[in-house]
Amino acid sequence: MAAYEAVIGLEVHVQLATASKLFCSCSTRFGQPPNTNVCEVCAGMPGALPVPNRQAVHYAALVGLATNCAINRRSIFARKNYFYPDLPAGYQISQFDLPICEHGHLDIVAEGQSKRIGITRIHMENDAGKNIHAQGENASYVDLNRAGTPLVEIVSEPDMRSAAEAVAYLKTLYGIVTYLGVCDGNMEEGSFRCDANVSLRPVGATAFGTRTELKNLNSFRNVQRAIEYEIARQQDVLDDGDSVVQETRLYDAVKNLTASMRSKEEAHDYRYFPDPDLLPVEIEAAELERWRAELPELPQPRAGRFMELTGLPEAEVEVLVQSRALADFFEAAAQKADPRKVANYVLGPLLRECNARNVPTGDPARWAMKPEALAELVRIVDQGLISAKIANDIFGDLFSNGAMPEAYVREKGLGQISDSSALEAAVDAVIAANPAEVEAYKGGKTKLISFFVGLIMRATKGKANPALVNELLNKKLQ
Ligand code: ADP
Ligand code: MG
Ligand code: ZN
């Protein structure tokens, strides 16, 4: 059994979050009644003329800038000819010889190793519609609402060597497009999906082996499992002395396997040619500079900054920067209270509440709690107004009712008892009720102090100031 190395290249389709389609003014809204967002252009009527969407060009360029690509200030739309019922024109408008972006790269970290992955090109294209094969009916339907939706396809170099690297690359890319705000990131709705090209070669070989292409993977988990499955399958084929057939395969997430869809050789000669209905896409130098200047801080540099700010390790900070909105929430709170403590509240109780209530962790707009409230909670624990335990107990309420913590705590009478006359009674009662322990303590078993503290805490429902309780006990047990 020879040792093989996997070679993986990804083609990622990112749906651009424009209001209208790539070449017409139809809405891109998801989930509308079938064939309601359709006009002559996106239905492919002969003679209907496409007009490029400026916003889509802008977004595509932002993706290129954020992935270290060279931006072609002049790029060309080309027709990619093939027949499919959900592609009424008989061709997709894409880019071929001269795409909008080329020669980029992304730095990823997989299994603790950092690595640079090349990006070959990024081109704009329109999406197809959807064929619906009705269950139990002898008919198929076509819904053209999605036809004409703007996509960018980001093609990587075959630089990845494992499923883990492929997933790390995808997550890095996903972070970038969602931070840029050019994609809504909804993977279930297909806004970010990928085809994985996988081949094997003997370890040490320089030439690539024959690849298969796994189509339309729409979750990180499916990418991981589909690639792992495909590597193992190809390994078996090669070990049997057979050769891998170049083909397109579909991943079945339920059965966890890939199955042949069509062989590549017979599949296509797309007969690309420049679309005669469309002028080259031109971007003015000054405009490109404006776009460059509007790039937000991206997840990787932001994670580095948060590590410095909080002193927390990379793995924890990565959770904070997973969504731009969550990172913004953290940062707003961290400006008003100790950043490390704020981070711990976000990573602990806050994410716990989100999960318990099935609220997305990346969408603070859907929480009642505001960053100011989180900061205030951290401050009143620091100041001793409430204990950390009470803060934890009331976190769920604050999360869902949006109250400011200090007012809430005062209203509910949850403030810490930091007044010695109020605590003395509780301390005296505990001492009076436990004479044997008091004797033992006086006889040298000083560890019993925590036993007394525990009883007093219970008697005061956790509201006693622990430092003060210790002080009173020490005095009274002398
Ligand atoms: P196509 O459009 O036919 O899929 P491309 O030339 O655009 O072909 O390549 C698609 C992807 O396949 C790229 O991401 C590239 O890195 C990857 N790729 C090319 N050759 C191999 C190979 N032998 N093994 C794995 N990936 C490959
Ligand atoms: Mg391909
Ligand atoms: Zn239209």
Automatic annotation (TrEMBL):
It comes from the Bacteria. Residues 328-477 form the Asn/Gln amidotransferase domain. One of its GO terms (biological process) is glutaminyl-tRNAGln biosynthesis via transamidation. InterPro entries: Asn/Gln-tRNA_amidoTrfase_suB/E, Asn/Gln-tRNA_Trfase_suB/E_cat, Asn/Gln_amidotransferase, Asn/Gln_tRNA_amidoTrase-B-like, GatB, GatB_C_1, GatB_Yqey_C_2, Gln-tRNA_amidoTrfase_suB_CS. It is an enzyme of class 6 (ligase). It catalyses: L-aspartyl-tRNA(Asn) + L-glutamine + ATP + H2O = L-asparaginyl-tRNA(Asn) + L-glutamate + ADP + phosphate + 2 H(+); L-glutamyl-tRNA(Gln) + L-glutamine + ATP + H2O = L-glutaminyl-tRNA(Gln) + L-glutamate + ADP + phosphate + H(+). Keywords: ATP-binding, Ligase, Nucleotide-binding, Protein biosynthesis, Transferase. PROSITE patterns: GATB (PS01234). GO terms for molecular function: asparaginyl-tRNA synthase (glutamine-hydrolyzing) activity; ATP binding; glutaminyl-tRNA synthase (glutamine-hydrolyzing) activity; transferase activity. Its EC number is 6.3.5.-. Belongs to the GatB/GatE family. GatB subfamily. Allows the formation of correctly charged Asn-tRNA(Asn) or Gln-tRNA(Gln) through the transamidation of misacylated Asp-tRNA(Asn) or Glu-tRNA(Gln) in organisms which lack either or both of asparaginyl-tRNA or glutaminyl-tRNA synthetases. The reaction takes place in the presence of glutamine and ATP through an activated phospho-Asp-tRNA(Asn) or phospho-Glu-tRNA(Gln). HAMAP family: GatB. This is Aspartyl/glutamyl-tRNA(Asn/Gln) amidotransferase subunit B. It comes from Desulfovibrio fairfieldensis.
